[in-house]
Design the sequence.
């Protein structure tokens, strides 16, 4: 694999597509408050696994598409995702050696920071969050992380994404 | 040498890449510039158009799970259940047809009376059905994305209804999609009238799908729980007389000049799948004014 250039871009693209689709399905009842932002988590995964390939710039572009997809301000998720990628890329050497469950705690912290950024911008344009529930998706993300990690790792190894 | 190696590897774990920090700074700066331009000057609509056209297939994909679920429940339903539903719908059809006959007469009579009074009130017709593509991820902002855009003739300020009542209005149109703000969005105000008494006020969004707030109603005003609210037609954006909600709570506070009145929208705003778009009065069809609180609430002479 040393001679090959980056391969398996379509795996990355389709993982984001799938994350966007899964993320827009509401969960039943009160559980919906904890619905994780799967796109942000897939982003964390690729920043951990391929930091030389998937970095801040790519994350910013993904964020821009998410902005359009979710009807947010142009640049809102782009900024948050760039910050998320920054945090992950800078710490990926440490986080990579953890087990998925221990990684989940770092993921929680990253997602909380990302969420605060997104809602801070919302607050600036006149939609301040009214209670603490807006942080709940980060908790959902922490619980979902081990599953996502295992699925994406197997996909990456199977399709030899480098 | 052997002792050096692990320490170097530990050091590796904590290396921070200064280039990444610089990169982050640049991207953050670009985001802030973009957000400012987008929010203040709405100058990035071209960019949004291009990107949203690219996202169009993704939205369709995102709808797929719900569509499959509906398809399955429709196609795998038992014969008995289908027959029962059919019978129920036929009954409803007969009932509605009977009502419609009465309505036609009333409408004709109403128009005749209005022409006698020389007041021009146009009754707009629903022109288009649109389907919901996505709901805003932000739980405090009630925006929905519809699968019709400028190409289908949508314009900013166009009223959006469902079969029960008013849902909201279009605030942004792309080529193939458009965004609507719901009446429960905290930044939305809808000019309404209490159907029983004719008292005019606004229905302010609260950020809850089940709640609208009615400000500026004096304590001595005649308002009861169960009163029906309809659009008043003030502001020229919504046509008159469409159902909005019912009053659910009335609290009189002797200490304040106004009563605290809460209403519940008739439309099931958290369960929208299809919406109707109205062709409104000609003065609202100019897609110039931004469709937020001030514009929607601007009172006009009745």
Sequence:
């Amino acid at each position: 694999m040393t001679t090959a250039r980056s391969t398996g871009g379509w795996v990355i693209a389709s993982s984001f597509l799938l994350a966007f689709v899964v993320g827009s399905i509401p969960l039943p009842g009160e559980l919906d408050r904890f619905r994780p932002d799967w796109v942000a988590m897939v982003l964390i995964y690729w920043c951990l696994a391929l930091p030389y390939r998937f970095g801040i710039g790519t994350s910013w572009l993904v964020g821009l598409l998410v902005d359009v997809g979710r009807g947010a301000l142009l640049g809102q998720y782009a900024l948050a995702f760039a910050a998320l990628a920054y945090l992950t890329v800078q710490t990926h050497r440490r986080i990579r050696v953890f087990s998925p469950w221990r990684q989940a705690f770092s993921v929680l912290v990253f997602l909380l920071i990302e969420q605060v950024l997104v809602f801070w911008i919302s607050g600036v344009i006149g939609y301040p969050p009214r209670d603490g529930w807006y942080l709940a998706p980060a908790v959902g993300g922490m619980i979902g992380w081990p599953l996502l990690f295992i699925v994406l790792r197997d996909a990456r190894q199977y399709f030899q994404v480098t | 040498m052997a002792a050096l190696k692990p320490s170097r590897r530990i050091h590796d774990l904590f290396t921070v890449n200064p280039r990444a920090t610089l990169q982050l700074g640049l991207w953050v700066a670009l985001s802030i510039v973009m957000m400012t331009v987008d929010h203040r000057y709405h100058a990035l609509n071209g960019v949004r158009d291009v990107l949203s056209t690219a996202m169009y297939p993704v939205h369709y994909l995102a709808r797929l799970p719900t569509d499959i679920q509906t398809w399955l429940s429709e196609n795998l339903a038992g014969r008995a259940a289908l027959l029962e539903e059919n019978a129920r719908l036929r009954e409803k059809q007969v009932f509605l047809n009977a009502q419609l006959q009465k309505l036609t007469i009333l409408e004709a009579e109403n128009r005749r009376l209005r022409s006698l009074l020389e007041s021009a009130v146009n009754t707009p017709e629903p022109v288009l059905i649109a389907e919901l593509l996505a709901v805003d991820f932000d739980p405090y902002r009630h925006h929905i994305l519809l699968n019709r855009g400028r190409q289908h003739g949508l314009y900013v300020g166009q009223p959006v209804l469902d079969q029960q009542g008013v849902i909201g209005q279009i605030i942004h149109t792309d080529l193939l999609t458009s965004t609507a703000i719901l009446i429960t969005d905290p930044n939305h105000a809808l000019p309404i009238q209490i159907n029983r008494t004719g008292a005019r006020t606004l229905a302010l969004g609260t950020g809850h799908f089940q709640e609208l707030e009615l400000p500026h109603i004096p304590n001595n005003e005649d308002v009861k729980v169960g009163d029906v609210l309809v659009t008043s037609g003030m502001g020229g954006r919504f046509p008159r007389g469409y159902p909005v909600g019912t009053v659910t709570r009335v609290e009189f506070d002797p200490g304040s000049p106004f009563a605290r009145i809460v209403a519940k929208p008739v439309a099931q705003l958290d369960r929208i799948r299809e919406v109707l778009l109205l062709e409104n009065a000609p003065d609202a069809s100019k897609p110039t004014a931004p469709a937020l609180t001030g514009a929607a609430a601007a009172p006009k002479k009745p």
User: Anything to note?
Assistant: Residues 37-158 of chain A form one domain. Chain A touches chain B at residues 17, 20-21, 23-25, 33, 37, 55-57, 60, 64-65, 68-76, 78-79, 82-83, 86, 89-90, 93-94, 118-119, 121-122, 125-130, 133-134 (CB under 8 Å).
